[in-house]
Amino acid sequence: MQQNVKGFSKLSKEEKINWITTTYFSNPKEAKEILLNYWNSDESLQKLHDEFIENTLTNFYLPYGVAPNFIINGKSYTIPMAIEESSVVAAASKAAKFWGERGGFKTTIINTEKIGQVHFLFNGSAEKLIAFFNQIKPQFFIDTDEVTKNMQKRGGGILDIELRNKTAEIANYFQLHATFNTKDSMGANFINTCLEQFAKTLETQANDFDGFSSEEKNVQIIMSILSNYVPNCLVRAEVSCPMEQLSESEAIDAHEFAQKFATAVKIAEIEPYRAVTHNKGIMNGIDAVVIATGNDFRAVEAGIHAYASKSGHYSSLSHVKIENGIFTFWLEVPLALGTVGGLTSLHPLVKFSMELLGNPSAEELMQIVAAAGLSQNFAALRSLTTTGIQQGHMKMHLMNILNQHQATKEEKQQVLDYFKETTISHSLVVDYLEKIRK
User: Fold this and answer.
1) What is the pLDDT of residues 86-97, one digit of tens each?
2) What's the CA angle centered on 121, arms 116 and 127, to 5 degrees?
3) Which of 116, 117, 125, 204 could connect to 226 by a Cys-Cys bridge, CB 3.0–4.6 Å?
């Protein structure tokens, strides 16, 4: 089968679909119908989605749900979540209601610094380069003034630029390490534009600097790019209550639960195999809100997991303390988010999400997202240390199993009734479905 194609990007959307379906599918007509079923009937809206990325064939849907009852710093929120995993929205909602009755989530912005770097090679004296940098440093700000003036009006801009010597790791390797405040925008384009101008300024000034030899004048720029590791763009989310208030059931002793919960968190702090899954649960909540608000969840994931390794080993993002009978559960995570620019002004559901949240600033959105992550983590740990994770998760997953096996409405009801008090597993559901069909 010939699978290479020339000029694919220049084909029309219909031509792309025809080539894909006839080249790769045994039933091209059926494959094409699947793609067409996910087109939006509004042509202008479909065109908008087509132009988000390249070589678009159709739309890929994720369920868009909401988690109500979040109280964050005394303010009530219903939080949008876009995610495909069963039980995440239900768990976040349940945890939000639980903590809403105990004072809600307390959140704090610790810092909002973002980082970008110009990576370059300099074959010469480090002392001369340091003296040169200190002399020309103001020029970096001057040469980016046109780029930064609007950001400066909003209270943001370039915070500082440092020269960092990395020659111990790579021969002749140095960095311009810059910090930024981008206010309500995520700021990737702004930061990268500034960095590329820094690189031009560095090259030009080095070439004109009389104190450099001809070899030293030849600064080699490797790349100029923002970093998704933002350890100084931090938000903290916290919940607390007297230990006696932790139990909603007489069958669970509140003090025993608190100690068991704290031990589970400590295990995630010292055991990487557990920490990865523990933090994945936090990201269930964080990513769902990040996607629903049109932010870059891959950047958020990369930065948060790097932060979880800042001590030298991968560890829990959340922590617990029990002091004087008070149970306190919190997390600190780096979150570089935006509420203006990008998809926030284009995608209709993103705009819907922002209005649902009261059109938050970037700092407010950081706090909302952190609270969603903490609520999800609390819900998961509460299940793990009491009933077990599968009981609730499989109940939510039950409908997916039934849909996978094309159960009728009547069959679904019979299965749901049967498994109200019965352990759920994929094989048991399939066996019971086959039994009632016979």
Assistant:
1) 899 999 999 999
2) 95
3) 116
Contact (CB, 8 A) for 226 and 338: no
Mean pLDDT of the chain: 93
Distance of CA 263 to the CA centre of its chain: 27
CA dist., res. 433 & res. 344, Å (int) = 44
Which residues are known catalytic residues?
85, 280, 296, 393
Res 395: pLDDT: 58
Which structure tokens are listed for 328? Answer: 């306190």
- What is the mean predicted confidence (pLDDT) over 167-180? 98
Per-residue pLDDT tens for 268-289?
999 999 999 999 999 999 999 9
Of 194, 183, 185, 130, the C-alpha closest to 160 is: 194
Q: Are 334 and 41 in contact (CB under 8 A)?
A: no
pTM score, whole prediction = 0.88
Q: Which residues, in sequence order, are CB contacts of 103 under 8 Å at separation 6+?
A: 71, 239, 240, 241
Q: How many CB atoms lie within 10 A of CB 4?
A: 6
pLDDT > 70: what percent of the chain?
97
For the chain, what's the residue count?
438
Report the Cα 275 to chain-centroid distance in Å: 17
Residues in a beta bridge with 181: 157
